Amino acid sequence: MTSPPLLEIRGLDTFYGPIQGLDSVDLVVEKGTIAVVLGANGAGKSTLLKTISGVLDPMKGTILFEGRAIERLEPDQVARLGISHVPEGREMFSMLTVRENLLLGAYVQKETAEIDRLMEMVFTYFPRLRERKGQPAGRMSGGEQQMLAIGRALMAKPRLILMDEPSLGLSPKLVREIFGIVRRLKEEQDATILLVEQNAKAALDVADCGSVLELGRVALRGTVAQLLASDAIRNSYLGTSRSLAL
User: β-strands 60-65, 7-16: how paired?
Assistant: First the structure.
């Protein structure tokens, strides 16, 4: 018998008051893959992640995680199932230290030894966090805060990581560094990641498959190879034409 996808979304509608943010969205994320959702500002990318994580309630539709419907669960219940959300803008506790922010991410863990192991793993991926573990998060650079946001999510030992615009506001060098770590998490930790991004090139370099959201609807989906072959992706997101090599 075939196992269900790790995450499956069917016919999802979400509203902000009278404004519809998602319109009949379908999406599948298989275990051990990186799936990217591309789209311009206002396309519904952040709305999608907030709906999955329970911050927003859908008007209709189904969200299945490991075959279980989760669309009516509270955010803490979703997190306890193994879904970690790295929000847009990092949302650090600025007065708390790096170590204290990481410990907050480990609130679902019970064993001290496991918390220590997870923190050491985070420091292995992000050595700068080890160097700054006693520093208030609010006094870190944007790139360091993004590392901390990802590290905090890893402390929950998630089965699915939701990442919202991890390249936002970062220099090209830091974007390459962050996405290199995203790739390593998949290869070394068998991480499953749903990534929403405007930086299509960086996202498609690490992803296995993807979708494009336009005004809350899925306008295009496919493997990375299929997306790269699309004129719409080349013209709107990569600034190239079909005749140019990628």
Answer: antiparallel
Give the pTM: 0.90
3-state secondary structure of 165: coil
Which residues make beta-bridge pairs with 65? 7, 68
Residue 164 has a CB neighbour count (10 Å cut-off) of 24
Q: What is the pLDDT of residues 108-123, one digit of tens each?
A: 888 999 999 999 999 9
CA distance 62 to 11: 7
Domain shared by 78 and 12, yes or no: yes
Residues 110 and 41 in one domain: no
Cβ-contact 125, 149 below 8 angstroms? no
Query: Does residue 115 share a domain with residue 62?
Result: no
Same domain, 116 and 212: no
What is the tens place of the pLDDT at every residue in 134-192? 999 999 998 999 999 999 999 999 999 999 999 988 889 999 999 999 999 999 999 99
CATH of the domain at 15: 3.40.50.300
Measured between alpha carbons, how far is 172 from 86 in angstroms, rounded to an integer?
20
Whether 180 is covered by a domain: the verdict is no
